Amino acid sequence: MATLERMVGLYGNDARVVFEARKWMDAHGVKLNSSETEKLLQEARGRVHGKEEMEILDAKAIAMSEDARRWTIAGILPESSVMLLAAAPGSGKSTLLYNWALHVALGKNWSNRRCKQGKALIIQCDEPVVDAAEKLQIIGYDDEALADDAIHFIDRWRFNNIPQLLAYIKRHRPQIVMIDSLTSCLAGMDVDLIRSDAGNCIYELRDIANQYGCSIVILHHLNKSGGIRDSSSFEANVSEVVKLYRQDNNPDCTQFIFEWIKSRSGLTGKHFLQRDPSTYGWWYKGPVTGGNEALDNLVNMMNSRSSERFSRRDAASAAGSWDSVGVGRLLEVARRQGLIASSFIVGPNGERTRMYHSWDYKEPNLAFEQAPEENPDREEPKQEPSEMKPEQENLPAQEEEDWF
Hints:
Layout: H1 2-10, H2 14-27, H3 34-49, H4 59-64, E1 71-73, E2 77-78, E3 81-87, H5 93-106, E4 120-124, H6 129-139, E5 151-154, H7 162-172, E6 176-180, H8 182-185, H9 203-212, E7 215-221, H10 233-236, E8 240-245, E9 255-263, E10 270-276, E11 281-287, H11 293-304, H12 312-318, H13 324-336, E12 341-346, E13 352-357
Parallel strand pairs: 3-7, 3-8, 4-5, 4-6, 6-7
Antiparallel strand pairs: 1-2, 8-9, 9-10, 10-11, 12-13
Helix pairs in contact: 1-2, 1-3, 7-9, 11-13, 12-13
């Protein structure tokens, strides 16, 4: 779609736009009929020039909507997003993504963070398959609980193959897509990595992630000064930018800083991650500034009482706190990060009260079968003595007489 938008903006003549679009599709192996091509170009024109009539939404209706941000990994990886994760070579960033992909495919929590179960796609162009195979086995990809075809692996891919990636996502609908790495997948392409428009090659991934609700993570490298390598346009064309690095003068070589540089989902700050080189395992250890214990305790309390819903005051009481305002703030943090869920109770006058609960909470089923009402005035029909049948006693069965 981004390529078509550029054509619409570049060429003023509609016939020229159609010609260039078909030429580009033929070169990239995209097969669409005339009506499908025209529909895509119409959408591109609408994005570039605007629609004839503006779509007007009601701000109050948006504010009162119960829609909430969805997460592939709660508080870490938003759904419908593209994340650029940059780290120094040899930091183990690939194994972090292997861990994420496995937990998503199994639907198991990662470091007490809920993972939405779904398929995973690993595009690994930065290390040989034989090296990846050893890591995958140690991490747990041979788990019997892992379904066949739950995680697919591709070792040859370039960013000019985005149409093929789109076709794959349409067909298989993965929840998470890992691309390792940006530099390797640009190799051989005519892209100047320091130009201001270098990031245009990944622009289309945003539309794909939004349309199909998946999370795409692109691994990249840090430069010697600790900044993100190459053009800043790569950062501009993604929704989340994160750096992974070791803290200076930290004697613990297994502890890393996970720092959000940019986040459209509202994630901020520096957080600790712990790595186990022997098992290639990774764990989230909370913010560098501390203060995560109260949030964790509150979430754990709600998960342990998954059959209940809590108002802010009820949650404060259950957590043993008198500060319902402070607990209310923590509840909102947990809800926005996908650690817990919420719903509303609507009063008789339309007033709404937000209630917080575990993701496992289910509305109680109040439907029950009513016993037939007894009518005291109804008389049962009486049987005449002649109609009454004698009661059968439990006597031993009589032996049949011999026939001879």
